[in-house]
Amino acid sequence: MKHARLDFASVPSAAQREAWRQTAETLRPVLQHKTVSPVSMVEQLHDPDAWQGIRVIPVAAAAELPNRRWRKGDSFILDFGEHHVGYFIFAMRIAGCYCDSPVSLRFLAAELPFELAYKAENFKGSLSQAWVQEEYVKIDELPGSIRLPRRYACRYLRVDVLATPDTLVFDRIEFDTVAAVNALPETPSSLSGIEREIYLTGCRTLRDCMQSCFEDGPKRDRRLWLGDLYLEAKVNAVTYRRFDLVERCIYLLAANVDEHGMLPACAFENSNIQTNCYIPDYALLFPALLLEHYTACGNREIVEEFYPLAVHQAELFQTFLQEEECLLKKAPGYWFFVDHAPGLEKDTAEYCIYLFSLRNLAELARLLHFPEDEARFLHEYRHWRELLRARTIDPGNGMLRSGVTGQISEASQIWGVLSGVFTPGEGRHALKRMEELAETVRSCNPYLYHYLLEAYLVCGEEEKARKLIDDYWGGMIRLGADTFWEVFDPSGTAPVLYGDIYLVSACHAWSCTPCFFLRRWHDADSGNASFPSPIPSVQ
Ligand code: RAM
Q1: I need a labelling partner for 62 at 20 to 30 A (CA). Which of 96, 124, 176, 405 fits?
Q2: Residues β-bridged to residue 402
Q3: Domain range spanning residue 129?
Q4: What is the pLDDT of residues 437-458, one digit of tens each?
Q5: Cα–Cα distances in Å, from 81 out to 42, 480, 522?
Q6: How many CB atoms lie within 10 A of CB 288?
Q7: Is the Cβ–Cβ distance between 85 and 152 less than 8 Å?
Q8: How do strand 134-139 and strand 103-110 relate by DSSP bridges?
Q9: Which residues contact 49 (CB under 8 A, 6 or more apart)?
C-alpha cells in the first residue's frame, strides 16, 4: 500500500510572518517586579555528601551587612532564600575617608552552591563562557548606588572586593526580581509532604522561566524553545493560566519559520536575531501544542489560524522517512534531538513522534470539522504504524529497537507507547522490561521523563508515575533543589552538558511538569475534572 502524501499546506509568506511578529508584540507581557532582600550571609563548605560536593551554611543575618567593613581581598556570599530572576542593586560608600580612586568588584551569581566555587581559568565548555554569571565592575564615585545592567538567575551572590581606596560598606544589596507573574499559585490542598514541595518547586521553576516569553532556562539559553514551550503550556494551564503568553510564543515561533516553512527549534524575541537551530521532532510537537492550548483555554481562532502550519510540519518530516528499514534519512542542518543521552539511536523514537504528531493532527481536524483531513491523517498513521511494528518490534522481547545497531532505549519504548505503536498492554510490558534490561540506553533528562510519566498513564500505571515523581523530582528536592534542574541523575553523578558543569541550568522549564500531574490528580480526586488522556486515541 502506498502511503498518503499529506501535501496540504504552503510556506507562509514574508508578509504573513511579519504580521505574526506584530501580533506577538501586542501580546508582550508587562513584567512584574518584586524587591527581594537577602536572608543571610553564608559560607561554602566542601562536603562529600552534598550535591556536587559543596553546601552553604549561614554565618550571619543579612541585616548585619551594613555593619561590616570590607577591604581588598575580602569576599562574602549572600543567600536570597530562594531562586529568583532579576537585577542587582548595590548601595555603597567608603567608610570615613575620601574616595580618591575607583572600587573594583567581582560578582558571581549562582543557582547552586557549587557554582560559587567557579574559577574562570578551569572552564572547558563548548558553549560561550559568557553564560557563566560572573562580572567585573568598577565604580568611580561613591557614595552611590549601582544597578547591574544584566539580568541574573540565582539564589546566591558572591561579592569579591578586588580593590578599594579605603574600607568599603554595603548599606544595601537588593534583587529587583522580574517575571511575567509574581504570586505562586495555591498548592492543591490534598498534597502533603514531599508532593507539596515538588508542586511548589515546579511552580517556582515555571515562574522564573516566565519572562517576556516562556524561556527554557533563565540562566542559560534564556530563550523560547518549542519543545520546552509544549511542556510549559501544559503546566501553565493548571497553574498560572497565562494563555496570552502561550499565544505570544506561538506567534513568535511562527514568525521565525525557515524558507521551507519549518518551525524553528528556538526563537529570539529580537527580530534582528535569526536562529539556525531546527529540531524536526520539536516541530512535530506543534499540533500537540495547539491541541493542548485549545483544550485548556478554548481559543479556536488561533487553532484555525495555525492548523495549516501544523500540518506542514508533518509534511516536511516526510522527507526524513524511509520505508525499507524505518531509518531516518538525515539531512544536514537539522538536529534530531529526542533526548541528550550520549549514543542514543533516535530513528525509532523520531518515527514514533511523527505518529504522535499525526494523532494530534487527526484530532485537530476532527475538532475543526475537516473529515477528509482526519481520514487522510489516520490513513497515514495506520500505514506507518504497521511498518514500524513489523520492522522495529523485537519478537523475542517485545521491545522497540532502533537504528542500525538495533539499540534498546528508554526513548524508543516511551515514544512507542505515546505514539500508539504499542497497545497499552504491550507498552506496559516494554516499560517494565526496559527497567530490568541492563543494555537499555537510559536518560538523565526531565524532558524525556515527563514523557515517561505520560506513558505510564497511557498504560494504566499510575502508581509507577507517582513513584517516578517521588524518586526523580523528589530526589532533586532531597538534594536541596528549590527549582528543578535541566538534567539530573539520581544515581549521584551530576550530568554535564556542553562540556562544562557551569553551563548546566538549575532552573529549567522542561522539568516543572510534575505540577501538571499532581494538580490533575488532585482535581480528579476532588471530583472536579477527569484526568484527560495525554494523547488523542485512534480508533
Ligand atoms: C538545550 C536546552 C533547551 C532544549 C534544547 C534541545 O539547549 O536545554 O531547553 O530545548 O537543548
Answers
A1: 96
A2: 407
A3: 33-178
A4: 999 999 999 999 999 999 999 9
A5: 11, 12, 28
A6: 25
A7: yes
A8: antiparallel
A9: none
Grid coordinates in use for 117?
566555587
Ligand 1 pocket (Cβ < 6 Å) reads 216, 221, 225, 227-228, 337, 486, 510
Residues 154 and 224 in one domain: no
Rounded-to-integer distance, Cα 517 and Cα 532, Å: 10
Residue nearest to atom 9 of ligand 1 (CA): 216
Residue 324 domain flag = yes
The radius of gyration of the chain from alpha carbons, rounded to an integer in Å, stands at 25
Place of cell 539564589: 155
Residue 451: inside a domain, yes or no? yes
List, in sequence order, every beta strand (DSSP E) within 185-299: 224-225, 266-267
Report residue 423 CA to chain centroid gap: 29
3-state secondary structure at position 294 = helix
Residue range 380-395: average pLDDT?
A: 97
Cβ atoms of 118 and 177 within 8 Å: the answer is no
Average pLDDT, integer, range 173-199: 96
- Residue 202 contacts residue 104 (beta carbons within 8 Å): no
Pocket test for ligand 1, best of 126, 225, 232 (most atoms within 8 A of CB): 225
Q: For residue 93, give the amino acid letter.
A: R
140's grid cell: 568611580
For 139, phi then psi, to 5°, come to -120, 120
Q: What is the pLDDT of residue 324?
A: 86
Q: Report whether 287 contacts 381 (CB < 8 A).
A: no
